Amino acid sequence: MTQERLLDTHCHVSAYDDPVAMLGAAEEAGIGVVAVTEDPDEYRRLKTRLGRREHVDVAIGLHPLRAASFGPNDLARFFRLLPQAKWIGEVGLDFSRAGAGTAKAQQKVFDTVLAEAPRGHHPLSVHSRGAEKEVIQKLAEAEAQAVLHWYTGPLYLVDEAVKSGLYFSLNIAMTRSRKFASLVRAIPRERVLLETDGPFAKVQGRAAHPHELGDVAEVLAQAWGTDIREATKAVIANQNRFLAKS
Question: Of the four, 15, 32, 34, 110, which is 20 to 30 A from 62 by CA?
Answer without folding.
Answer: 32
